[in-house]
Amino acid sequence: MPLRSDWSGEFCPIRRSLDVLGDPWVLLIIRDVLHGRGRFDVLRDNLGISEPVLSRRLQTMVEAGLLVRVDYADGPRTRQGYAATDAAAELLPVLQQLAVWGERHTVMPAGGAHMALIHETCGDETTSGETCSSCGAALSAGQMTWVKPWKHARDRLQPAGTLL
């Protein structure tokens, strides 16, 4: 999904990555899907994104191999939501490092509080996106909880392919 130009044929892997991930909505959608919020209405409401923009982003992300459509029951109806693929789940260290970077280098708005990244396997907070800064283990979505005090939330991330 080109943000400015089509960089899909570039030799530079950063340019090719930005061709897919360069739209800020993409990482925010992946964040929410990894939190188990892969239903269209939940994504729309949580992100504050318009339906047409969300529809286009989701379609492009499915085509790019970041998301898969997953059926779920909604009363007597079957609907489709979205789950992360392994490719999207591999972005977890990037998302977590962005959170760590934002904690260190941006100004916290009034009333905000520190977001903690908890490695559930050892129970400690990590200050690294890829490996636990406490126990050294590689971090994966199914082992991570993000504590967001401003939302009074403690959200356990979901492994690839999971829709709640």
Automatic annotation (TrEMBL):
Its keywords, alphabetically, are: DNA-binding, Transcription, Transcription regulation
Keyword hit for DNA-binding: yes
Instruction: Show the PROSITE patterns listed in the entry.
Output: HTH_HXLR
InterPro entries documented for this protein: ArsR-like_HTH, HTH_HxlR, WH-like_DNA-bd_sf, WH_DNA-bd_sf
The chain positions of domain HTH hxlR-type read 12-110
Q: Which GO terms of the molecular function aspect are on file?
A: DNA binding
The name this protein carries in UniProt is Transcriptional regulator
